[in-house]
Design brief:
The structure holds three protein chains of three kinds.
Chain A lengths: L1 H28 L13 H10 L6 H15 L13 H36 L4 H14 L3 H15 L13 H31 L2 H8 L4 H13 L1 H16 L2 H7 L5 H9 L3 H29 L1 H6 L1
Chain B lengths: L10 H27 L1 H19 L19 H4 L19 H37 L1 H16 L2 H12 L3 H12 L4 H11 L3 H8 L4 H37 L11 H10 L7 H28 L5
Chain C lengths: L1 E3 L1 H11 L19 E6 L14 H10 L4 E3 L5 E3 L2 E7 L4 E6 L13 H12 L8 H6 L5 H5 L10 E5 L2 E5 L21 H7 L15 E7 L3 E6 L13 E6 L3 H9 L5 E3 L5 H7 L4 E14 L12 H9 L3 H9 L4 E2 L23 H14 L10 E7 L2 H18 L2 E7 L1 H9 L5 E7 L6 H4 L16 H12 L4 H14 L2 E13 L3 E2 L16 E2 L4
Parallel strand pairs in C: 2-11, 15-16, 15-17
Antiparallel strand pairs in C: 1-5, 3-4, 5-6, 6-8, 7-8, 9-10, 10-11, 12-18, 13-17, 13-18, 14-18, 19-20
Classes of the chains: A mainly alpha, B mainly alpha, C alpha+beta.
């Protein structure tokens, strides 16, 4: 397994290289540059600005300089939009924020979604099943841009319990609403997948064999059914966790958390090249790490998959 | 690769093998019967069908066109723009005094079309690649996972912007863009399932019998994980419907005065705290009907297609 | 020989009333115990560096942190800042500012003329590459353009400090509104020693040294910033607010909710919500005129459609826009229907009587139909169809939809709406890759030429490529003329006749401001506000 992990880690390097090259040229293909503005800069000023950031060099030279700076100095370049800061600055400040509420959101999703799904599956087509279904649908029909304003109206304006936004160093009162608003719709999906997967597992031959052997139902569920039944959910959660961090733009903007989801969008709109590249690399590494984690979990749960590594 | 021989000895394998034989024989016929026995699923199919009818013929009932501004209401929408039978705005008007009913009809067309086509294509593509990656593993797996990784990490806004600059805009471009960005949907889940299933005894057996990889995947692995794809699809279609509004917002998709559920819902949500709730409620109701129907159809199909549930 | 400026005599009288230009407290004001002012900003600031900052909100912070030669009062008039007064040479080309001797940086060092020389040289330095270097060019400082172009060293900038309290500027041409331009952040002094010690991180709290009424004490990007009273500030004793906090809230509706919850004391009003809020909070909702216009620009270059080359078509499209509907029923935020390019709020600008402004909409519609028929389009003629390009935004979309429906219903014109992402839009509009496009302009300084220069042939912002020799000539004359009104009137008349752009409305600023916050400069059309002029009263 160790050699497998190492091989996977080595395999990420070409992926990153390809990603950087694709992103780099894709961004330059996009009309407009970081300094295109409503009041176009006079030519001389534009020339100075481009020179200062090295944007006047041929593209492949810029790409080479960029890669060199990363390798030699771990320097991801300056931000063009936030002029007093570098990409390293912005990410080291925003990433902990995003990952913190992303983590709590994932905890919320799993702690609510999995039990919902399991109960619904065990009481298949019963009152419980329908109630869970209703709950799942209910949480899915409130996309976060509807749910978030409703929560703020309720908890901030009417009840005065929670602050309407901000981060304040990550105190729990500031995390609750972003985490729930971000997670709710995923929670419903997790519940559905878990339900489906649990039903699938409960009907599979080895559970039937276990039942035939007369094992108590509780043991069957906890010891035998749950682990394999959770595999699809785990596979589902890996990209979702990345989505939660990349796709948390709305949450970042709405709750003013200061996370990097907002930079990903702002960076795209303002053509903040180095910021976007830096974030793309970060996301790629994150995606890779989570995928690897999923594969290892699969291998850990299913001995046959492990043998196949 | 594990040796197929050692797996063939247990009694469980025999049962599974027998089951597999039945699956390949009468699988689809049985599934159809099982599906139509599920009442909720049938009702949902009917509801979805009604939505399609509404999208196609709904404009016949409208007294206003979807782009025409009711100048008499403009400026006092908050007080007089609500739903009313007397002025012909059954669902009220939008922020600019345009008939919401006609706009919901128009939006239903876009959303149903785009949502279904894009989601089905995206999940289909993702499932195919996931199956290939999971089944073959090794280098192929690494390449597909690399592509998956890159797709997830590319700044999608820039991608849309570049696409629009080079290929322009229309419905087909939009569907294409959405498939390209979302082809990873379901990939990981399918890959994981295939990875697990390919080591099951019945697959080994099939392999021993000299079946081709393609046949093994379609005949033996697919039926056992179809439920994942179906549930994933019923999750993805509503997501895609909402996603469409972002793509359009960035200029690749449909343009005003055309609209979609996603656009109507996000416009309605933007003003929901200001007392024009009907602007959110009506498009949302249609969206919810579609979503709930898909939910039950998805579950119905899951139950029906489960090779073990008979 | 120099002569005293008019400003100076006005200033002398004000300096006698000590501190009359700081927070102006009426006698018996009951001040709130907590003098903390919290307001909402939309985005993270571009910078706190006076020479680098680009965005409006950033400039507002910079005006609190740093103080330039002059400040503006509540009506937008000049009042002394670091400079007490100035004199102008007879040829109007040399300005000599006298600086106060009690101005200090937050680290206790005195503010000297040398700090201004350093800052102004910095603003044009190619190495710093400030995007706002164009502002220094606009100020017509001698050699500025050559330095920006890299042809001369920065030391050639024609600014000098004969002694610590005298700052002299030489211009390359007379500029009647030069003195007004020194209230802009780009011209504020900067602390050489701090910049050299900390490099690009000199604006971080703890590193920053500033000479304004406040110092930056906390900054969490994309979340909040805090600035607190600068005890070294020369007029600190008249500053009332102790602490000013900005919260970044990206969503208008959410900002309003948090305003209602009392988390912020000032926020922007979401589009279209002014009437309802004005009714609910009559004391807190404001619609203030603003120095910005909104227009549709025809592409009159070779790439533009044939129809737009016909003045009658342009006239017809302009006439058939019911500006009152757009202003009163769509935007509903106290905007002003526009028939001229320059907003009425512009200082010293008298709105000329252009013919179509005085007509009823019914008359305008009738003339529009006739003109279009004469030109051979519309009913009975060639169908008129074109594409209107705008950038993605709800407000622009609303205007686009309403206008296109007006054209469709009144003139039978088929208008295709096309929205594009902001930078794509700018590229296409700048490259004349459009038929009709949205345009808007906010004044860089409070004078009509900031608007009208836009439509001259050499202007880099003239996206429609309109060109009229007479307009060019009039605007050149206006640069050095003492009486500009007749010139501007003639330009506006030409624009109304030829209609190269369709003026739609002039902006207003819609804000919510808590009752307890006093001293807001509601009459300042540039909305340049200073926290040192604000105060909070007790009780509610």
């Amino acid at each position: 397994m160790l050699s497998y992990t190492l091989r996977r880690i080595l395999a990420v390097i070409p992926t990153l290289l390809i990603l950087i090259v694709i992103c780099f040229y894709l961004m330059r293909l996009a009309p407009g540059g970081p300094f295109t503005s409503e009041k176009p800069l006079p030519d001389a000023v534009m020339k100075n600005v481009l020179e200062r950031y090295g944007l006047d060099e041929p593209l492949h030279v810029q790409l080479w300089t960029y890669m060199k700076n990363i390798l030699l100095h771990f320097d991801f370049g300056p931000s063009f939009a936030q002029k007093d800061r570098t990409v390293n600055d912005v990410i080291s400040h925003g990433f902990p924020v995003t990952i913190t509420y992303g983590f709590w959101s994932a905890v919320f999703v799993l702690l609510c979604g999995i039990p919902l799904g399991v109960i619904a599956a065990l009481r298949h087509n019963s009152f419980w099943d329908y109630t869970m279904t209703g709950l799942a649908i209910f949480s899915q029909i409130f996309p976060n841009f509807v749910l978030a304003p409703l929560m703020v109206l309720l908890f901030t304006l009417w009840l005065g319990l929670l602050p309407g936004g901000g981060w304040n160093g990550g105190q729990w009162a500031y995390i609750v609403m972003p985490a729930i608003a971000l997670g709710t719709s995923y929670m419903a999906s997790v519940a559905r997948l878990t339900r489906g997967s649990m039903l699938e597992t409960l009907n599979s031959p080895f559970i039937r064999t276990a039942r035939a052997k007369g094992l108590p139902e509780r043991t069957i569920i906890w010891r035998h059914a749950l682990k394999p039944a959770l595999l699809p959910t785990i596979a589902y959660m890996s990209p979702v966790f990345v989505y939660m961090i990349t796709g948390s733009v709305f949450i970042d903007v709405f709750f003013s958390t200061g996370g990097i989801g907002q930079d990903f969008i702002d960076g795209a709109y303002s053509r903040d090249y180095s910021m976007l590249l830096g974030l793309a690399i970060l996301y790629s590494v994150l995606t890779f790490a989570l995928n690897l984690a999923v594969d290892l979990i699969y291998a850990w749960i299913d001995p046959k998959v492990r043998a196949g590594l | 690769m594990i040796s197929p021989k050692k797996a063939l000895s247990s009694p469980e394998t025999t049962t599974a093998l027998a089951e597999q034989m039945i699956v390949s024989r009468s699988f689809w016929a049985d599934a159809r019967i099982r599906f139509f026995r599920n009442r909720m699923a049938v009702v949902s199919i009917f509801m979805l069908f009604c939505l399609v009818l509404f999208a196609i013929f709904g404009h016949a009932l409208a007294t206003w066109s979807y782009e025409e501004i009711d100048w008499s209401l403009l400026g006092k929408i908050k007080t007089e723009g609500g739903p009313s039978l007397s002025n012909g705005h059954y669902f009220g008007v939008d922020e600019l005094g345009r008939d919401l009913y006609a706009r919901v009809v128009q939006g239903s067309r876009t959303s149903l079309l785009v949502g279904f086509i894009a989601a089905i294509l995206a999940v289909g593509l993702g499932a195919t690649f996931g199956a290939i990656a999971g089944y073959y593993g090794g280098r192929i797996d690494q390449i597909i996972m690399g592509a998956y990784n890159i797709t997830l990490s590319i700044p999608y806004i820039i991608f849309f912007v570049v696409w629009q600059a080079f290929f322009g805009r229309d419905l087909i471009q939009m569907i294409l863009v959405m498939v390209i960005i979302n082809w990873t949907a379901g990939l990981l889940i399918v890959r994981g399932q295939v990875k697990m299933l390919k080591n099951r005894e019945f697959v080994d057996a099939a392999r021993m019998l000299g079946m081709s990889d393609f046949k093994i995947i379609t005949r033996h692995i697919l039926p056992n994980m179809l439920w994942v794809i179906i549930i994933y699809m019923s999750i993805t279609i509503p997501e895609t419907i909402m996603y469409e509004s972002l793509v359009s917002f960035l200029g690749v998709g449909i343009q005003e005065p055309n609209t979609s559920w996603g656009a109507l819902i996000s416009q309605g949500a933007g003003t929901m705290t200001f007392g024009t709730l009907w602007q959110l409620a009506f498009p949302a109701i249609f969206f919810v009907i579609a979503q709930v129907s898909l939910y039950y159809i998805g579950d119905g199909l899951r139950d029906a297609l489960d090779p073990k549930e008979r | 020989m120099t002569r005293k400026s008019i400003l100076l005599s006005a200033l002398l009288s004000t300096t006698l009333v000590a501190g009359a230009y700081a927070a102006d407290l009426p006698a018996g004001t009951d001040l709130a115990a907590d003098q903390t002012f919290t307001y909402r900003v939309l985005d993270e600031f571009s910078s706190f560096d006076p020479q680098v900052v680009e965005d409006v909100e950033g400039a507002n912070v910079v005006r609190d942190l740093f103080e330039g030669l002059y400040n503006q009062d509540a009506d937008g008039n000049l009042v002394p800042g670091v400079a007490l007064s100035h004199t102008v040479s007879d040829d109007n080309m040399t300005y000599t500012f006298t600086l106060r001797d009690n101005a200090k940086w937050s680290d206790g060092k005195p503010v000297t003329a040398g700090d201004f020389v350093y800052a102004w040289q910095r603003a044009v330095a190619p190495e710093l590459a400030s995007p706002y270097a164009w502002y220094m060019e606009l100020m017509s400082i001698e050699n500025a353009s050559a330095i920006i172009a890299g042809e001369k060293p920065i030391t050639d900038l024609a600014v000098e400090a004969p002694d610590d309290h005298t700052f002299v500027v030489h211009l390359s041409q007379p500029l009647p509104y030069f003195a007004k331009m020194v209230t802009h952040g780009t011209t504020f002094p900067s602390p050489k020693w701090a910049i050299e010690a900390h490099g690009s991180e000199w604006t971080r709290p703890g590193n920053i040294v500033s000479n304004g009424a406040y110092v930056l004490t906390e900054h969490v990007p994309k979340e909040r910033s805090v600035r607190e009273r600068n005890t070294m500030y020369w007029d600190n004793e008249h500053t009332v607010l102790d602490k000013v906090v900005t919260l970044v809230i990206g969503d208008d509706a959410q900002a309003l909710t948090r305003y209602r919850a009392g988390e912020v004391e000032k926020t922007d009003i979401p589009a279209g919500q002014y009437p309802a809020l004005a009714e609910e909070f009559p004391e807190e909702a404001y619609a203030l005129p603003r120095l910005c216009n909104y227009y549709f620009t025809f592409n009159m270059s070779d790439t533009g459609p044939e129809a737009f080359k016909d003045v009658r078509v342009r006239q017809a499209l302009s006439m058939s826009i019911d500006r009152n509907v757009i202003v009163d029923q769509v935007l509903q935020g106290g905007q002003f229907p526009a028939y001229t390019f320059t907003p009425a709020a512009t200082a010293g600008f008298e709105v000329p009587d252009v013919a179509y402004a005085g007509m009823t909409q019914a008359d305008r519609d009738k003339i529009a139909k006739e003109l279009l028929a004469e030109a051979g389009y519309g009913e009975g003629g060639e169908p008129l169809s074109f594409t209107y390009l705008y950038n993605t935004s709800d407000a622009h979309q609303q205007v686009a939809i309403v206008a296109s429906q007006m054209w469709k219903q009144k003139l039978g014109a088929e208008v295709t709406l096309e929205n594009q992402e902001w930078k794509v839009f700018l590229e296409n509009r700048g490259a004349q890759n459009f038929e009709m496009a949205r345009g808007a302009w906010c004044g860089d300084y409070n004078e009509a030429s900031t608007f009208l220069d836009l439509l001259t042939s050499p202007s880099g912002y003239n996206d429609g490529k309109y060109s009229n020799a007479r307009v060019d000539e009039l605007m050149t004359t206006a640069k050095s003329s003492q009486d500009t009104q007749p010139l501007y009137t003639e330009v506006e008349q030409i624009l109304a006749d030829e209609m190269p752009v369709v003026p739609v409305y002039h902006y207003s600023t819609n804000i919510m401001l808590k009752d307890s916050v006093e001293g807001w400069p509601i009459n300042n059309v540039e909305q340049n506000w200073y926290s040192k002029d604000l105060y909070k009263v007790a009780g509610e």
